[in-house]
Design a protein that fits this description.
Number of strands: 0
Shape: globular
Order of helices and strands: HHHHHHHHHHHHH
Helix content: over 70%
Strand content: under 5%
Number of domains: 1
Number of helices: 13
Structural class: mainly alpha
Radius of gyration: 20 Å
Distance between the termini: 22 Å
Length: 252
C-alpha cells in the first residue's frame, strides 16, 4: 500500500456515506435485528435459564442474522467496481499514480469499516438485556468477544467475495447475484454432513461450516482453524480481484 491508499479509502467511505443503499441497508438490517432480538428474548424467557448459553450466542445463531448477512453483503458490494465501470471512472483510477492493491484494498476496507459500523451497535441489545434482567446474569466477556471476532471474520470473507464479483462485471445486478450465489453455496455447504457417516467428510464440513464456527466461538472456545480458513480465503479473493484489475490495466 502507498499514501494513495488513505486518499482512496476516504473516497470510498465518502461514497458510502452519500449512498442511499447504505442507509436503506442499515434501516432494514435493524428492523430485522429488532425482530430477531425479540425472538431471542422470548426463547430466553420460556427457557428461564442462561447457564449454558449467552444472549449473543442466541442472537448470532438465529436464522434472522444469517439471512441479513447473506442478503446485505451482495447489495453493499455490488457497486464497488461495477459503478466505476458504468460511469467510466475506472480509467481514471487505472491511469492515476496508484497501485492495483491501493484500489482493491481501499474498496475492501471501506466495506469492512462500514460492516463493523453495522454490527457494533448490536452491543446495545446486550445492554438492554442486562437492564431487563437487572444484571442478574453476569456478562461473559470471553465468549462475547470471540463471537464478535467471528462476525468480523465471516464478514471479511463474504465481503471479499463481493469485491471480486463486482470487479468482474459492470452490471451491478449480475455482481450482486453472483456474490450471493457463491456466498449461499459456501454457507449451505456447512450442512452437507447431515446424515453422513464418513468421519473425514464430517470433519471437513465442520472446517468450512460458518454456523458451526459461530457456535464454537460463542461458547468461548477459540479454534485457530476457522481463523486460518477465513483469512486465507479472504486473501485469495482479494488476490483474484487484484489480478482482474491488473488485466484491465494491461488492456487499457
Amino acid at each position: 500500500m502507498t499514501r494513495a491508499f488513505g486518499v482512496l479509502l476516504r473516497r470510498e467511505l465518502g461514497a458510502i456515506l452519500f449512498s442511499p443503499i447504505a442507509y436503506v441497508t442499515f434501516v432494514l438490517l435493524y428492523l430485522v435485528n429488532g425482530f430477531s432480538f425479540q425472538f431471542v428474548l422470548e426463547v430466553v424467557s420460556q427457557n428461564g435459564s442462561m447457564q449454558n448459553f449467552t444472549i449473543m450466542q442466541f442472537f448470532f445463531g438465529t436464522f434472522f442474522y444469517w439471512i441479513v448477512v447473506l442478503v446485505s453483503i451482495p447489495i453493499l458490494t455490488m457497486r464497488l467496481f461495477s459503478e466505476e465501470y458504468r460511469a467510466g471512472t475506472i480509467e481514471l483510477l487505472l491511469t492515476a499514480p496508484v497501485t492495483d492493491w491501493d484500489v482493491v484494498l481501499s474498496k475492501f476496507f471501506s466495506q469492512v469499516l462500514f460492516y463493523l459500523g453495522l454490527w457494533l451497535p448490536t452491543l446495545l441489545y446486550l445492554a438492554i438485556f442486562q437492564w431487563l434482567t437487572k444484571n442478574q446474569i453476569p456478562v461473559n466477556w470471553g465468549p462475547l468477544l470471540l463471537t464478535y471476532a467471528m462476525v468480523l471474520l465471516v464478514g471479511m470473507f463474504y465481503l471479499s467475495i463481493g469485491v471480486f464479483t463486482s470487479a468482474l462485471t459492470k452490471n451491478q445486478v449480475i455482481a450482486a447475484f453472483s456474490s450471493f450465489a457463491i456466498i449461499v453455496l459456501i454457507f449451505f455447504s456447512g450442512f452437507l454432513n447431515i446424515g453422513s457417516t464418513d468421519s473425514a467428510f464430517q470433519e471437513f464440513i465442520r472446517y468450512i461450516g460458518a454456523l458451526e464456527h459461530m457456535q464454537t466461538f460463542a461458547r468461548g472456545i477459540f479454534d485457530t482453524r476457522p481463523v486460518v480458513f477465513y483469512l486465507s480465503f479472504t486473501a485469495l479473493f482479494l488476490i483474484l480481484t487484484q489480478q482482474v484489475m491488473t488485466m484491465r490495466r494491461l488492456k487499457s
